[in-house]
Amino acid sequence: MVSLTPYLHLDVALSGARAGDRLPLGRDDRHHLGTVLRLGPGAAVEIADGCGTSAFGTLVDAEVELVSDPRVLPEPRPWLVLAQAVPKGRKLDEIVRHACELGVDELRVIDTARSVVRLDERRAARGRERWNAVIRAACEQARRPRQPAVSGPIGLDRLGRDDELLLLAHPDAPPLPSVASVWQPAARLVLAVGPEGGFSDDEVADAVAGGALAVGLGPSVLRAEHAGAAGLAVLSAATGRWNT
C-alpha cells in the first residue's frame, strides 16, 4: 500500500515563494503534524495555500522548508457552483464536505419558498465560519490546493447571472446528462438544489423563464443532502474535469 505524503493547508501565500524558503507553521498546524500525525523534523509534507498553489517541503522545527518551487493549479473550466438550500440540522456540513471532495469551486447557500431553516445574519456568520473549517479539512483530505468560497444566504433569483447557467434540480425534468450540449458554452455552471420539499412550481417557472434549465438527477428520489453530490459527479464527468 502506497503511503501518501501528509497534505495540509497553511495560512500563508505561496505565490512568489521558491525552493529553499522557510514558511512558519501555526500552532494548530504544529499540533496536527506533531501530535496527531506524529511527524518530526525532516518529515516530508505537501502544503497548499488554499488559493490554488502547492509545494513539497520538509519539517524544520516550527517551519516548513520548501524542497520544490510552488506550482499553480489553473482555474478549471467550467467553474462548478453548488447553490444549496439549507436543510434541517447539521446536514449542510455533510453537503459542504462531499461537494469539496467532488471538486466544487464555489458554494452558495440559498433561501427558498419551502426552506424550513432560516438563517439571520448572526446564524449565517456562525455557519460560514464552521463551513470554512469543514472546507479546509475536506480539501486537505481530498488533496485540493484551492478552497471553494462559501457565501449566502441569497435568493434563488440572484443565481444564473452574467456568464452563469443555472441548472435547477427538479423531479421529472430532463436528465442532467441529456442537456450537456446546452451547458458547454457556459463559463460557470450553477447547480441549485432545494430543501427537503424541493423547489416550488412558481420558483421553477420563474427560473426557467429567466433562462435556467430544470434538470433531473436520476430515476431515484434523492435526499436533499445527497442530491448536490450526485449532480456534481455527473457534471465533473460530463465536462471532462475527471480526465485531468
Number of strands: 12
Any idea what the shape is? Answer: elongated
The helix/strand class is: alpha/beta
Domain module count: 2
Instruction: Using the 3D structure, state the CATH architecture of the largest domain.
Output: 3-Layer(aba) Sandwich
What is the level 1 CATH name of the largest domain? Alpha Beta
Low-confidence stretches: none
**Helix fraction by DSSP (H/I, runs of at least 4):** 25-40%
Radius of gyration (CA) equals 20 Å
Question: Any overview of this molecule?
Answer:
The chain has helices at 27-36, 91-101, 121-142, 180-183, 201-209, 224-238, and strands spanning 7-9, 22-24, 44-48, 53-60, 63-66, 71-72, 79-85, 106-111, 149-155, 164-169, 188-193, 213-215. The radius of gyration is 20 Å and the shape is elongated. It has 244 residues and is an alpha/beta fold. Strands 1, 2, 3, 4, 5 and 6 form a six-stranded mixed β-sheet that branches. Strands 9-8-7-11-10-12 form a six-stranded parallel β-sheet. Helix 2 packs parallel to helix 3 (121-142) and helix 2 runs parallel beside helix 6. The model has no long low-confidence stretch (mean pLDDT 89). It has six helices and twelve strands. The chain is 29% helix and 25% strand. The longest helix has 22 residues, at 121-142. It starts with 6 loop residues before the first strand and ends in a 6-residue tail after the last helix. The protein folds into two domains: 7-72, Ribosomal Protein L25, Chain P (Beta Barrel), CATH 2.40.240.20; 79-243, Alpha/beta knot.
What can be said about this structure in brief?
The protein contains six helices and twelve strands. The protein has 244 residues and is of the alpha/beta class.
